[in-house]
Amino acid sequence: MLTPIALLVASALSLPAPIAAPPRVLVDPTSPRMLTALETVKADEIKSDVYFIASDQMGGRDTPSDGLRVTARFLRSRLERLGWKPGAKDGYFYEYPLEQRVIDENASRIDWEGKGASGQLRFGTDYFLSTLFDVSDLSVSGPVVFAGEGSKEDLGSARVEGKWALVFDAGTEVRELSRNARRAKAKGLIVAPGPNYKGDDYPKRFAPALERQRKGSVAWPSKPGAKADEEDRGPRDLFPMVLMTRSAAESLLEVAKKPATPAKGADLGITLTETRKLVGDGGKIAVENVCGFWPGSDPVLAKECVILSAHYDHIGIIKGEVHNGADDNGSGTSTMLAVAEALQEFGPLKRSVMIIWVSGEEKGLWGSKAFSENPWFPEGVKPVADINIDMVGRNAPDKLLVTPTREKTKEYNDLVKMAEKLAPLEGFPKLGSADQYYERSDHYMFAKLGIPVMFLFSDVHEDYHRAGDDPEKLDYDKVHRVARLVLRILDGLDEQASLK
Ligand SMILES: [Zn+2]
Questions:
Q1: pLDDT at 29
Q2: What is the pLDDT of residue 488?
Q3: Domain 28-100+283-494 has what CATH class?
Protein backbone atom coordinates (compact mmCIF):
# COMPACT_ATOMS: atom_id res chain seq x y z
CA MET A 1 0.00 0.00 0.00
CA LEU A 2 1.12 3.53 -0.70
CA THR A 3 2.22 5.61 2.27
CA PRO A 4 0.01 8.70 2.88
CA ILE A 5 2.81 10.96 1.62
CA ALA A 6 3.25 8.95 -1.54
CA LEU A 7 -0.48 9.08 -2.05
CA LEU A 8 -0.56 12.89 -1.76
CA VAL A 9 2.30 13.15 -4.27
CA ALA A 10 0.51 10.79 -6.62
CA SER A 11 -2.77 12.68 -6.48
CA ALA A 12 -0.98 16.03 -6.91
CA LEU A 13 0.65 14.68 -10.07
CA SER A 14 -2.67 13.65 -11.50
CA LEU A 15 -4.19 17.14 -11.23
CA PRO A 16 -4.54 19.14 -14.46
CA ALA A 17 -1.88 21.80 -15.13
CA PRO A 18 -2.62 24.96 -13.06
CA ILE A 19 -2.85 27.26 -16.11
CA ALA A 20 -5.58 25.13 -17.70
CA ALA A 21 -7.77 25.05 -14.57
CA PRO A 22 -10.37 27.83 -14.28
CA PRO A 23 -10.69 29.35 -10.79
CA ARG A 24 -13.36 27.47 -8.85
CA VAL A 25 -15.84 29.33 -6.72
CA LEU A 26 -17.58 27.24 -4.09
CA VAL A 27 -21.21 28.14 -3.65
CA ASP A 28 -22.54 26.94 -0.30
CA PRO A 29 -25.97 25.45 -1.03
CA THR A 30 -26.78 24.94 2.65
CA SER A 31 -29.83 26.55 4.19
CA PRO A 32 -29.49 29.01 7.11
CA ARG A 33 -31.32 26.47 9.29
CA MET A 34 -28.73 23.80 8.47
CA LEU A 35 -25.89 26.26 9.05
CA THR A 36 -27.21 26.77 12.58
CA ALA A 37 -27.32 23.01 13.11
CA LEU A 38 -23.75 22.71 11.80
CA GLU A 39 -22.64 25.16 14.50
CA THR A 40 -23.68 22.67 17.19
CA VAL A 41 -20.99 20.22 16.06
CA LYS A 42 -17.99 20.92 18.30
CA ALA A 43 -14.55 19.32 18.09
CA ASP A 44 -14.14 19.45 21.89
CA GLU A 45 -17.42 17.63 22.50
CA ILE A 46 -16.49 14.88 20.04
CA LYS A 47 -13.13 14.63 21.80
CA SER A 48 -14.87 14.15 25.13
CA ASP A 49 -16.98 11.31 23.69
CA VAL A 50 -13.96 9.57 22.15
CA TYR A 51 -12.05 9.78 25.44
CA PHE A 52 -14.96 8.02 27.15
CA ILE A 53 -15.64 5.37 24.49
CA ALA A 54 -11.94 4.60 23.99
CA SER A 55 -10.96 4.67 27.67
CA ASP A 56 -9.06 1.70 29.14
CA GLN A 57 -12.08 0.98 31.31
CA MET A 58 -14.04 -0.05 28.18
CA GLY A 59 -11.48 -2.82 27.71
CA GLY A 60 -11.28 -2.39 23.95
CA ARG A 61 -15.01 -3.12 23.37
CA ASP A 62 -14.60 -6.69 22.14
CA THR A 63 -17.76 -8.49 20.93
CA PRO A 64 -19.02 -9.63 23.39
CA SER A 65 -17.65 -7.87 26.50
CA ASP A 66 -18.76 -5.70 29.40
CA GLY A 67 -17.06 -2.69 27.79
CA LEU A 68 -19.12 -3.18 24.65
CA ARG A 69 -22.35 -3.36 26.65
CA VAL A 70 -21.46 -0.27 28.67
CA THR A 71 -20.76 1.61 25.42
CA ALA A 72 -24.15 0.50 24.05
CA ARG A 73 -25.90 1.85 27.14
CA PHE A 74 -24.02 5.13 26.89
CA LEU A 75 -25.18 5.53 23.26
CA ARG A 76 -28.75 4.64 24.20
CA SER A 77 -28.78 7.16 27.03
CA ARG A 78 -27.64 9.91 24.69
CA LEU A 79 -30.30 9.05 22.11
CA GLU A 80 -32.99 9.12 24.79
CA ARG A 81 -31.84 12.49 26.13
CA LEU A 82 -31.82 13.95 22.63
CA GLY A 83 -35.35 12.78 22.01
CA TRP A 84 -34.54 10.25 19.32
CA LYS A 85 -37.13 7.49 18.96
CA PRO A 86 -36.22 3.84 19.62
CA GLY A 87 -34.98 2.33 16.36
CA ALA A 88 -35.62 -1.34 17.13
CA LYS A 89 -38.63 -3.51 17.80
CA ASP A 90 -38.35 -3.48 21.60
CA GLY A 91 -36.45 -0.27 22.23
CA TYR A 92 -33.08 1.05 21.18
CA PHE A 93 -31.33 -2.34 21.04
CA TYR A 94 -31.44 -4.58 18.02
CA GLU A 95 -30.38 -7.91 19.49
CA TYR A 96 -28.89 -10.78 17.55
CA PRO A 97 -27.65 -14.18 18.73
CA LEU A 98 -24.10 -15.52 18.86
CA GLU A 99 -22.69 -18.82 20.00
CA GLN A 100 -20.29 -18.54 22.87
CA ARG A 101 -18.22 -21.40 24.22
CA VAL A 102 -16.86 -20.60 27.69
CA ILE A 103 -16.63 -23.13 30.50
CA ASP A 104 -18.74 -22.48 33.59
CA GLU A 105 -16.18 -23.58 36.18
CA ASN A 106 -18.52 -23.47 39.14
CA ALA A 107 -21.08 -25.74 37.51
CA SER A 108 -18.59 -28.14 35.89
CA ARG A 109 -17.47 -30.99 38.17
CA ILE A 110 -17.22 -34.72 38.78
CA ASP A 111 -19.23 -36.37 41.56
CA TRP A 112 -18.50 -39.93 42.58
CA GLU A 113 -19.96 -42.38 45.06
CA GLY A 114 -19.43 -46.00 46.01
CA LYS A 115 -17.96 -48.28 48.67
CA GLY A 116 -19.80 -46.25 51.29
CA ALA A 117 -18.12 -42.98 50.34
CA SER A 118 -18.69 -40.06 48.01
CA GLY A 119 -16.79 -37.01 46.85
CA GLN A 120 -16.23 -34.39 44.23
CA LEU A 121 -13.41 -33.61 41.81
CA ARG A 122 -12.80 -30.05 40.66
CA PHE A 123 -12.48 -28.99 37.06
CA GLY A 124 -9.17 -27.26 36.39
CA THR A 125 -7.54 -28.81 39.47
CA ASP A 126 -8.31 -32.53 39.59
CA TYR A 127 -9.18 -32.99 35.95
CA PHE A 128 -9.08 -31.22 32.59
CA LEU A 129 -10.68 -31.26 29.14
CA SER A 130 -8.49 -31.51 26.09
CA THR A 131 -9.87 -28.86 23.71
CA LEU A 132 -12.21 -25.90 23.56
CA PHE A 133 -14.63 -28.06 21.57
CA ASP A 134 -14.95 -30.44 24.54
CA VAL A 135 -16.62 -27.60 26.43
CA SER A 136 -20.32 -28.27 26.10
CA ASP A 137 -23.48 -28.84 28.13
CA LEU A 138 -23.25 -32.46 29.20
CA SER A 139 -23.98 -34.81 32.09
CA VAL A 140 -22.79 -38.42 31.95
CA SER A 141 -23.14 -40.98 34.71
CA GLY A 142 -21.95 -44.60 34.95
CA PRO A 143 -19.80 -47.21 36.67
CA VAL A 144 -15.99 -47.11 36.26
CA VAL A 145 -13.97 -49.98 34.80
CA PHE A 146 -10.18 -50.13 34.45
CA ALA A 147 -9.05 -50.75 30.84
CA GLY A 148 -5.23 -50.87 30.84
CA GLU A 149 -3.45 -48.42 28.58
CA GLY A 150 -6.40 -47.88 26.28
CA SER A 151 -5.39 -49.92 23.24
CA LYS A 152 -8.17 -51.46 21.14
CA GLU A 153 -7.39 -54.83 22.71
CA ASP A 154 -7.36 -53.42 26.26
CA LEU A 155 -10.72 -51.75 25.80
CA GLY A 156 -12.21 -54.75 24.05
CA SER A 157 -11.20 -57.22 26.75
CA ALA A 158 -12.25 -54.93 29.64
CA ARG A 159 -15.94 -54.91 28.50
CA VAL A 160 -16.44 -51.19 28.87
CA GLU A 161 -19.75 -50.95 27.05
CA GLY A 162 -22.05 -48.42 28.77
CA LYS A 163 -19.38 -47.59 31.40
CA TRP A 164 -16.64 -45.08 32.07
CA ALA A 165 -13.33 -46.62 30.93
CA LEU A 166 -10.38 -45.60 33.13
CA VAL A 167 -7.11 -45.96 31.20
CA PHE A 168 -3.50 -45.19 32.07
CA ASP A 169 -1.73 -42.74 29.81
CA ALA A 170 1.45 -44.31 28.42
CA GLY A 171 2.04 -41.67 25.77
CA THR A 172 -0.65 -42.55 23.22
CA GLU A 173 -2.39 -39.53 21.66
CA VAL A 174 -5.52 -38.78 23.67
CA ARG A 175 -7.54 -38.50 20.45
CA GLU A 176 -6.60 -42.07 19.60
CA LEU A 177 -7.56 -43.26 23.09
CA SER A 178 -10.86 -41.48 22.64
CA ARG A 179 -11.48 -43.17 19.28
CA ASN A 180 -10.68 -46.58 20.74
CA ALA A 181 -13.03 -46.07 23.69
CA ARG A 182 -15.81 -44.82 21.43
CA ARG A 183 -15.46 -47.90 19.20
CA ALA A 184 -15.60 -50.15 22.27
CA LYS A 185 -18.93 -48.40 23.06
CA ALA A 186 -17.74 -46.97 26.38
CA LYS A 187 -19.97 -44.28 27.84
CA GLY A 188 -16.96 -42.08 28.48
CA LEU A 189 -13.20 -42.14 28.95
CA ILE A 190 -11.04 -41.17 31.92
CA VAL A 191 -7.34 -40.83 31.09
CA ALA A 192 -4.80 -40.58 33.93
CA PRO A 193 -0.98 -40.71 33.95
CA GLY A 194 0.10 -44.32 34.56
CA PRO A 195 3.43 -45.82 35.66
CA ASN A 196 4.73 -45.64 32.05
CA TYR A 197 3.83 -41.96 31.57
CA LYS A 198 6.85 -39.74 30.78
CA GLY A 199 5.17 -36.46 29.81
CA ASP A 200 4.45 -33.24 31.70
CA ASP A 201 2.15 -33.33 34.70
CA TYR A 202 -1.41 -32.77 33.53
CA PRO A 203 -1.88 -29.34 35.17
CA LYS A 204 1.10 -28.13 33.14
CA ARG A 205 0.28 -30.05 29.97
CA PHE A 206 -3.33 -28.90 29.79
CA ALA A 207 -2.79 -25.33 31.04
CA PRO A 208 -3.04 -23.84 27.50
CA ALA A 209 -6.29 -25.73 26.87
CA LEU A 210 -7.64 -24.56 30.23
CA GLU A 211 -6.81 -20.97 29.36
CA ARG A 212 -8.69 -21.27 26.05
CA GLN A 213 -11.68 -22.85 27.80
CA ARG A 214 -11.76 -20.00 30.33
CA LYS A 215 -11.35 -17.27 27.73
CA GLY A 216 -13.69 -19.08 25.38
CA SER A 217 -14.65 -18.34 21.83
CA VAL A 218 -17.54 -16.67 20.14
CA ALA A 219 -18.94 -17.49 16.73
CA TRP A 220 -21.64 -16.54 14.28
CA PRO A 221 -24.44 -19.03 14.96
CA SER A 222 -24.21 -22.13 12.84
CA LYS A 223 -27.38 -22.82 10.87
CA PRO A 224 -29.32 -25.92 11.87
CA GLY A 225 -28.19 -28.73 9.64
CA ALA A 226 -24.84 -27.09 8.85
CA LYS A 227 -21.93 -29.43 8.35
CA ALA A 228 -19.46 -27.66 10.65
CA ASP A 229 -18.80 -29.15 14.09
CA GLU A 230 -20.64 -32.33 13.22
CA GLU A 231 -17.70 -34.72 12.89
CA ASP A 232 -16.09 -35.35 16.25
CA ARG A 233 -16.23 -31.84 17.65
CA GLY A 234 -19.89 -30.97 17.94
CA PRO A 235 -21.82 -31.29 21.20
CA ARG A 236 -24.35 -33.66 19.66
CA ASP A 237 -21.65 -36.13 18.80
CA LEU A 238 -19.25 -35.33 21.61
CA PHE A 239 -17.59 -38.33 23.21
CA PRO A 240 -16.96 -37.51 26.90
CA MET A 241 -13.29 -37.64 27.82
CA VAL A 242 -11.66 -36.26 30.96
CA LEU A 243 -7.96 -35.99 31.73
CA MET A 244 -7.53 -36.76 35.42
CA THR A 245 -4.44 -35.98 37.52
CA ARG A 246 -2.47 -38.89 38.90
CA SER A 247 -3.39 -38.03 42.50
CA ALA A 248 -7.11 -37.78 41.74
CA ALA A 249 -7.03 -41.19 40.00
CA GLU A 250 -5.04 -42.68 42.88
CA SER A 251 -7.60 -41.46 45.39
CA LEU A 252 -10.40 -43.16 43.42
CA LEU A 253 -8.40 -46.42 43.29
CA GLU A 254 -7.82 -46.18 47.05
CA VAL A 255 -11.53 -45.78 47.75
CA ALA A 256 -12.12 -48.77 45.45
CA LYS A 257 -9.49 -50.74 47.42
CA LYS A 258 -7.66 -51.59 44.22
CA PRO A 259 -3.91 -51.87 43.67
CA ALA A 260 -2.02 -48.98 41.99
CA THR A 261 -2.41 -50.86 38.70
CA PRO A 262 -5.61 -52.92 38.81
CA ALA A 263 -6.33 -55.95 36.65
CA LYS A 264 -7.83 -55.15 33.23
CA GLY A 265 -11.60 -55.22 33.41
CA ALA A 266 -11.66 -54.56 37.18
CA ASP A 267 -14.86 -52.77 38.21
CA LEU A 268 -14.07 -50.04 40.76
CA GLY A 269 -17.51 -50.25 42.35
CA ILE A 270 -17.82 -46.51 41.95
CA THR A 271 -20.44 -44.52 40.05
CA LEU A 272 -19.03 -41.38 38.50
CA THR A 273 -21.03 -38.43 37.17
CA GLU A 274 -19.33 -35.81 35.08
CA THR A 275 -21.18 -32.52 34.53
CA ARG A 276 -20.06 -29.87 32.04
CA LYS A 277 -21.69 -26.50 31.63
CA LEU A 278 -21.26 -23.63 29.24
CA VAL A 279 -21.65 -20.10 30.53
CA GLY A 280 -25.03 -18.70 29.46
CA ASP A 281 -28.09 -20.39 28.05
CA GLY A 282 -26.63 -23.41 26.30
CA GLY A 283 -23.88 -21.18 24.94
CA LYS A 284 -26.32 -18.81 23.19
CA ILE A 285 -25.86 -15.13 23.96
CA ALA A 286 -27.39 -11.97 22.54
CA VAL A 287 -25.39 -8.89 21.54
CA GLU A 288 -26.65 -5.47 20.55
CA ASN A 289 -26.73 -2.95 17.75
CA VAL A 290 -27.90 0.42 19.05
CA CYS A 291 -30.56 2.03 16.86
CA GLY A 292 -32.18 5.46 16.97
CA PHE A 293 -34.91 6.72 14.66
CA TRP A 294 -35.46 10.36 13.62
CA PRO A 295 -38.80 10.63 11.79
CA GLY A 296 -38.97 12.76 8.67
CA SER A 297 -41.47 15.58 8.15
CA ASP A 298 -42.56 15.07 4.54
CA PRO A 299 -45.76 12.98 4.32
CA VAL A 300 -44.31 10.95 1.44
CA LEU A 301 -40.53 11.08 1.88
CA ALA A 302 -40.75 10.31 5.61
CA LYS A 303 -41.51 6.71 4.56
CA GLU A 304 -37.96 6.63 3.20
CA CYS A 305 -35.11 6.19 5.62
CA VAL A 306 -31.43 7.03 5.32
CA ILE A 307 -29.30 4.74 7.48
CA LEU A 308 -26.26 6.25 9.18
CA SER A 309 -23.97 3.49 10.43
CA ALA A 310 -20.77 3.19 12.44
CA HIS A 311 -19.41 0.21 14.34
CA TYR A 312 -18.84 0.77 18.05
CA ASP A 313 -16.97 -2.46 18.81
CA HIS A 314 -13.22 -3.03 18.63
CA ILE A 315 -10.82 -5.92 19.21
CA GLY A 316 -10.58 -5.99 23.02
CA ILE A 317 -7.57 -6.96 25.12
CA ILE A 318 -4.76 -8.79 23.36
CA LYS A 319 -1.75 -10.16 25.31
CA GLY A 320 -2.76 -8.05 28.29
CA GLU A 321 -2.91 -4.80 26.33
CA VAL A 322 -6.16 -2.87 25.92
CA HIS A 323 -6.72 -2.00 22.28
CA ASN A 324 -8.71 1.20 22.73
CA GLY A 325 -9.76 1.70 19.12
CA ALA A 326 -10.01 5.49 19.40
CA ASP A 327 -9.88 5.95 15.65
CA ASP A 328 -11.30 2.47 14.92
CA ASN A 329 -14.05 3.27 15.52
CA GLY A 330 -14.39 5.69 18.43
CA SER A 331 -14.12 8.39 15.78
CA GLY A 332 -17.07 7.20 13.68
CA THR A 333 -19.14 6.32 16.76
CA SER A 334 -18.70 9.85 18.12
CA THR A 335 -19.27 11.41 14.70
CA MET A 336 -22.74 9.85 14.66
CA LEU A 337 -23.43 11.15 18.18
CA ALA A 338 -22.57 14.65 16.97
CA VAL A 339 -24.88 14.19 13.97
CA ALA A 340 -27.69 12.98 16.27
CA GLU A 341 -27.28 16.11 18.38
CA ALA A 342 -27.17 18.45 15.38
CA LEU A 343 -30.34 16.92 13.94
CA GLN A 344 -32.04 17.52 17.27
CA GLU A 345 -31.14 21.20 16.81
CA PHE A 346 -32.21 21.14 13.16
CA GLY A 347 -35.52 19.33 13.58
CA PRO A 348 -36.81 16.77 11.10
CA LEU A 349 -35.44 16.35 7.61
CA LYS A 350 -37.95 15.43 4.89
CA ARG A 351 -36.73 11.83 4.99
CA SER A 352 -36.39 9.77 8.14
CA VAL A 353 -32.97 8.87 9.51
CA MET A 354 -31.94 5.70 11.33
CA ILE A 355 -28.61 5.73 13.16
CA ILE A 356 -27.29 2.22 13.70
CA TRP A 357 -24.21 1.68 15.84
CA VAL A 358 -23.30 -1.92 15.05
CA SER A 359 -21.31 -4.43 17.09
CA GLY A 360 -19.26 -7.39 15.87
CA GLU A 361 -17.76 -5.49 12.92
CA GLU A 362 -14.23 -6.55 13.79
CA LYS A 363 -15.35 -10.18 14.05
CA GLY A 364 -16.70 -10.20 10.49
CA LEU A 365 -19.38 -7.51 10.01
CA TRP A 366 -21.69 -9.52 12.31
CA GLY A 367 -23.97 -6.71 13.52
CA SER A 368 -24.66 -5.35 10.04
CA LYS A 369 -24.98 -8.88 8.65
CA ALA A 370 -27.60 -9.74 11.28
CA PHE A 371 -29.48 -6.53 10.50
CA SER A 372 -29.35 -6.92 6.73
CA GLU A 373 -30.60 -10.52 6.99
CA ASN A 374 -33.46 -9.51 9.25
CA PRO A 375 -33.96 -5.74 9.07
CA TRP A 376 -36.32 -3.80 11.32
CA PHE A 377 -37.89 -0.42 10.49
CA PRO A 378 -41.00 1.29 11.84
CA GLU A 379 -44.22 0.27 10.09
CA GLY A 380 -44.32 1.47 6.49
CA VAL A 381 -40.73 2.76 6.45
CA LYS A 382 -38.15 1.41 4.01
CA PRO A 383 -34.42 2.06 3.72
CA VAL A 384 -33.18 4.07 0.73
CA ALA A 385 -29.49 4.65 1.51
CA ASP A 386 -26.65 3.96 3.94
CA ILE A 387 -23.79 6.28 4.89
CA ASN A 388 -21.16 4.36 6.86
CA ILE A 389 -18.26 5.85 8.79
CA ASP A 390 -15.24 3.99 10.11
CA MET A 391 -11.88 5.54 11.14
CA VAL A 392 -12.00 9.23 10.28
CA GLY A 393 -9.62 10.76 12.83
CA ARG A 394 -6.07 10.21 11.62
CA ASN A 395 -3.73 11.07 8.74
CA ALA A 396 -3.52 14.46 6.95
CA PRO A 397 -6.23 17.02 7.89
CA ASP A 398 -7.52 17.18 4.30
CA LYS A 399 -7.37 13.43 3.62
CA LEU A 400 -10.72 11.68 3.32
CA LEU A 401 -11.46 8.64 1.19
CA VAL A 402 -14.75 7.41 -0.23
CA THR A 403 -16.10 4.28 -1.86
CA PRO A 404 -17.72 3.42 -4.27
CA THR A 405 -15.97 5.94 -6.52
CA ARG A 406 -16.90 6.45 -10.18
CA GLU A 407 -14.35 3.69 -10.92
CA LYS A 408 -16.89 1.26 -9.50
CA THR A 409 -19.43 2.17 -12.15
CA LYS A 410 -22.12 -0.22 -11.02
CA GLU A 411 -22.10 0.91 -7.37
CA TYR A 412 -21.29 4.62 -7.87
CA ASN A 413 -24.33 6.60 -6.69
CA ASP A 414 -26.06 9.85 -5.69
CA LEU A 415 -24.62 9.75 -2.16
CA VAL A 416 -21.05 9.77 -3.39
CA LYS A 417 -21.82 12.49 -5.94
CA MET A 418 -23.26 14.63 -3.14
CA ALA A 419 -20.22 13.94 -0.92
CA GLU A 420 -17.84 14.85 -3.75
CA LYS A 421 -19.72 18.10 -4.29
CA LEU A 422 -19.86 19.13 -0.62
CA ALA A 423 -16.56 17.82 0.81
CA PRO A 424 -14.55 20.95 -0.21
CA LEU A 425 -16.82 23.05 2.04
CA GLU A 426 -15.41 21.14 5.03
CA GLY A 427 -11.75 21.24 4.08
CA PHE A 428 -11.55 18.07 1.99
CA PRO A 429 -10.67 19.48 -1.46
CA LYS A 430 -10.76 16.10 -3.23
CA LEU A 431 -12.02 12.77 -1.89
CA GLY A 432 -9.59 9.90 -2.47
CA SER A 433 -10.61 6.34 -3.28
CA ALA A 434 -11.40 3.72 -0.63
CA ASP A 435 -12.53 1.25 -3.29
CA GLN A 436 -10.06 -1.37 -2.03
CA TYR A 437 -11.97 -1.27 1.28
CA TYR A 438 -15.41 -1.68 -0.27
CA GLU A 439 -15.91 -5.09 1.36
CA ARG A 440 -14.21 -4.22 4.63
CA SER A 441 -16.82 -2.35 6.64
CA ASP A 442 -20.54 -2.40 7.37
CA HIS A 443 -21.86 -0.54 4.30
CA TYR A 444 -21.04 -3.74 2.40
CA MET A 445 -23.73 -5.57 4.39
CA PHE A 446 -26.23 -2.70 4.18
CA ALA A 447 -25.82 -2.78 0.39
CA LYS A 448 -27.47 -6.21 0.58
CA LEU A 449 -30.71 -4.36 1.38
CA GLY A 450 -30.58 -3.27 -2.26
CA ILE A 451 -29.83 0.39 -1.48
CA PRO A 452 -27.03 2.77 -2.53
CA VAL A 453 -24.27 2.92 0.09
CA MET A 454 -21.30 5.16 0.79
CA PHE A 455 -18.28 4.68 3.02
CA LEU A 456 -16.24 7.59 4.41
CA PHE A 457 -12.82 6.64 5.77
CA SER A 458 -9.52 8.42 6.29
CA ASP A 459 -7.26 5.42 5.79
CA VAL A 460 -5.24 3.05 7.97
CA HIS A 461 -2.10 4.11 9.86
CA GLU A 462 0.71 2.73 12.03
CA ASP A 463 -1.64 2.20 15.00
CA TYR A 464 -4.30 0.36 13.00
CA HIS A 465 -5.44 -2.63 15.13
CA ARG A 466 -2.60 -1.94 17.57
CA ALA A 467 -2.65 -0.97 21.24
CA GLY A 468 -1.51 2.54 20.25
CA ASP A 469 -4.83 3.56 18.64
CA ASP A 470 -5.41 6.05 21.48
CA PRO A 471 -7.60 9.15 21.88
CA GLU A 472 -4.74 11.65 22.16
CA LYS A 473 -3.62 10.85 18.60
CA LEU A 474 -6.83 11.92 16.87
CA ASP A 475 -7.34 15.12 14.90
CA TYR A 476 -10.62 16.29 16.44
CA ASP A 477 -10.94 19.26 14.14
CA LYS A 478 -10.95 16.75 11.29
CA VAL A 479 -13.51 14.44 12.94
CA HIS A 480 -15.83 17.38 13.56
CA ARG A 481 -15.57 18.38 9.88
CA VAL A 482 -16.56 14.83 8.88
CA ALA A 483 -19.64 15.09 11.13
CA ARG A 484 -20.52 18.43 9.48
CA LEU A 485 -20.03 16.89 6.05
CA VAL A 486 -22.49 14.09 6.91
CA LEU A 487 -25.06 16.74 7.90
CA ARG A 488 -24.52 18.65 4.68
CA ILE A 489 -24.92 15.45 2.67
CA LEU A 490 -28.20 14.59 4.46
CA ASP A 491 -29.46 18.09 3.77
CA GLY A 492 -28.38 17.92 0.11
CA LEU A 493 -29.98 14.51 -0.43
CA ASP A 494 -33.21 15.80 1.10
CA GLU A 495 -33.62 18.06 -1.93
CA GLN A 496 -33.59 15.06 -4.28
CA ALA A 497 -36.92 13.42 -5.07
CA SER A 498 -35.31 9.98 -5.31
CA LEU A 499 -31.95 8.39 -4.52
CA LYS A 500 -30.11 5.92 -6.68
ZN1 LIG B 1 -11.12 -2.25 12.71
A1: 67
A2: 96
A3: alpha beta
The pTM (predicted TM-score) of the whole model is: 0.79
* Structural domain boundaries in the chain: 28-100+283-494, 109-276
The yes/no answer on whether domain 109-276 falls in CATH 2.30.110.10 is: no
Helices (H), 219-331: 246-255
Distance 331 CA to ligand 1 centre (A): 11
Q: How far is the CA of 346 from the centre of ligand 1 (A)?
A: 31
Cα dihedral across residues 421, 423, 429, 432: positive or negative: negative
Q: Report residues of the chain scoring pLDDT below 50.
A: 1-18, 225-236
Cα separation of 300 and 427, whole Å? 34
pLDDT digits (tens, 9 = 90+) for 214-250: 988 898 886 654 444 433 344 446 899 999 999 999 9
DSSP for 433-497, written as a single string: E-GGGTTSSTHHHHGGGT--EEEEE----TTTTSTT--GGG--HHHHHHHHHHHHHHHHHHHTSS
**Distance between Cα 462 and ligand 1 center (Å):** 13
User: 364: CA distance to ligand 1 center in Å?
Assistant: 10
Q: Cα of 282 to ligand 1 centre, how many Å?
A: 30
Give residue 223's pLDDT: 61
Q: Cβ-count burial of 348 within 10 angstroms (0-12 exposed, 13-18 middle, 19+ buried)?
A: middle
